[in-house]
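Demo today. Your pick:
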Amino acid sequence: MHHETELNIFTVKSIIHTLLAFVCMCLGMGSSWAQSAIDYPNKPIRIVAPSAAGGGFDLVARVLGSKLSEQMGQQFVVENRSGGGTLAGTQVIAKAPADGYHLIVGGLSNMALNAGLYKNPGYDPLTDFIPLRIVVSHSYTLVGRKDLPFNTMKDMLTYAKAHPGQLNFGTSGSGTGQFILASLIKGMGNVDIQLVPYKGAQPVYMDLLGGRMDLFFDNTTTTRTYLESNQLKALAVSSRQRAPDAPQIPTLIETGTLELEMETWFGLFAPAKTPQAVVEKLRAEIDKAMLSPDIRKKLQQGSGRIIQMNNVETDAMMKAELQKWPKLLKSVGIVQE
């Protein structure tokens, strides 16, 4: 009996010691986790731009990366990872350690359109990533060669219906905003137009200026040079509001032809399991960077729209974009690869 009581006392003591050790371990983990957030960053941070150098992904990576390096005292290293549209670079960060040292520029293309373009993109934008901040959006402008026999979106669609298969529409390859918008005009406008794939925007402009191509829906910033020099004509912009540096060009919705708006937006994203303290630190630093008029100007490039949203608004926008685009792409016959 005495031996049994001693055994019970020993067992209770063991349980208490185990519980105390567990509590100490948890406290230690908590303090080390908090400490890691305080120490962050203590080594260079990688930002992947899932595209070649140049263009919106690269611009956002370099402009924000440079400012965050200056603010946080650690180098933000931009890595261009193109391939499979924006798939390759985005897949890399979806599988990267969630420690705050691996970030990606997320945009309309890799965080919304890919879900409608590919059966298996290799990541889920909502569950594999945390949006830190979406910072800027850019519209597209529909431009045409100067001697086209129409000057408005409405007249273009009328002409296309009267001349099936005769209008040529340049695109910069499957999955790009240029391709998506041309496909949407063809499908939603119910017109027979020829979509001609190119390997980039510059060859399309060569053919537009040479009279070998009729129309091109390109990034508004890129179209500006050709419009200001009066080499091409503009029919519409894709955004909900008119572009600030070309208020004379109507939006697609204002033309009364298509109930369509599309802006290519960009921001910084982290892998989903990144510690909350690190996420909040990065958000605060991005907010601080976005107070700089110079940073805003660089991101706008004349025609961009600076975006300022809180966490709830950002999450709502992400969900809305993912509900909208895959459905719309399917409705106009774009088949998933």
The chain has three domains: 1-31, 45-138+264-331, 140-237.
